[in-house]
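Sorry to interrupt, but I need a hand with the structure work. Could you add the entry underneath, on a fresh line?
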Amino acid sequence: MAVSTTTTITIDEELNQFERDIRQLKIEYEQFFGGGRKRPPTEIEWRLELLTKRYAERGGELKYGQRFRYNNLTQTYAKYKDVFRKRLQQKEEGKVSRHFGSAAKKIEAEREERRAATRSKTEAAEAAEAKSRAEKALTTFRMVCSKPEEEADKITKLYEAFLEAKQKAGEDTLKFTRSNFHEFVTKKTKDLQKTQHCHDVEYVVEVLEGHVKLKALVKG
């Protein structure tokens, strides 16, 4: 029995192909202007035009980084088209231009500058996002545990703080009981003391982007 499969091309894959087609367009136009091709690369131009029009209509589907990359690619393509159009006009008029090579090199240099700027902006955005996540984290309770079997009162306070935070966040608390929470903290503390060779374990009740987290931090 024959099985049919459908391959879904992602936006990033299409943008990669878009970038490759732009490079290939430049190569084939240079071959055409140099006499190595009889016709201009109209098939590649058709693919580029089709993708440009499609994403002009579907811009809302692109993420910020994808939209930024798409805009850079379309600007590069537009510059190349302008260079090629003028060169074709000169060729049809029987003129010879000696500036195409330098114009193309200038475009490549500008493109590399944009790539470097994009990398810098992406790194800065990732750093800012990480900082923002850290700043949004709200610590509601801290407790240091070293001998859980002798610190039932401290674990009870941790349990109550954790339960209260989850209730305020509208999260399910039915599966949390005082006894199984004590068992969890006791086992977690001893496991960390054994594997990390530490004396104290600090437990932190934290609310991050509306979700309650219980962190166990190794102390000295």
User: Anything to note?
Assistant: The beta strands are 138-145, 201-208, 211-218. Helices lie at 11-33, 42-57, 64-92, 100-136, 152-168, 178-196. The radius of gyration is 30 Å.
